Amino acid sequence: MPLISVLTPVHAQRAEFLAEAGESLAGQDLPAGWEVEWLVQEDGATSAPAEVTRRFPFSRFQANGESLGVNITRNMALSRASGSLVHVLDSDDLLLPDALRTAIEAFGAHPRVHWVTGQAHDLLPDSSRQSFPAPLAPGVIEPGVLTQLIIDSGRPAAPCAGLTARIATVRAFGGWVATARGGDLALLVALAETTPGFLPPEVTWLYRRHAGQITGQDGWSRLQAESTALIRQRIAALRELGVRVASEPAAATT
């Protein structure tokens, strides 16, 4: 039976948000025959998040036992994944009911693609939603197109937190990169430079804006320049070596 693995790194103080993320996952309208596993990985010692995940029979919780950072924590969850597809769900974000169906069906409709990045709305503290424009027109994104947009604009140019990808491709590139900032973007640029992807026209998830958001904390921008330089260097190195994933991806239904 086909399986999609959803990875969620979490800190103990995010237990309340984590419950809402789990409810949004429980409400997914999956394609016929598909199942979901929710791999919750705590960046720290076992505590409140373990209690939350027990409410959801499709969840599997594990704690690092120490603080390793969000990107290593995602990779710890990745090591436990059994699905043919992997989806990122941050602990404070929410999926709309058709989110996973939209991604799964995109892989079926476009067998060449290795990744799908969903469009999002900001979820504001008063529960209202705010839209923002997509960086590219919806449809198939050929290798190098998204990365060139990142180089030209100097911005992420894609909502990395909504990524769904073929798990073999993610593992081949080493998962999420241990940069100080932007490890999710560093993975996405490797995928986007070497393989085709897809941007659906639908909004599929909500990016929560709140006071405790990591990217809004003092000091977040301190190492941003160095991390951006590493990401640009990765794109340049892939282009210099002419790296492309030549093989057709395996079907995502096994």
Automatic annotation (TrEMBL):
Cross-referenced Pfam families: Glycos_transf_2 (PF00535)
InterPro entries the record matches: Glyco_trans_2-like, Nucleotide-diphossugar_trans
All copies of domain Glycosyltransferase 2-like, residue ranges: 5-112
Official protein name in the record: Glycosyltransferase
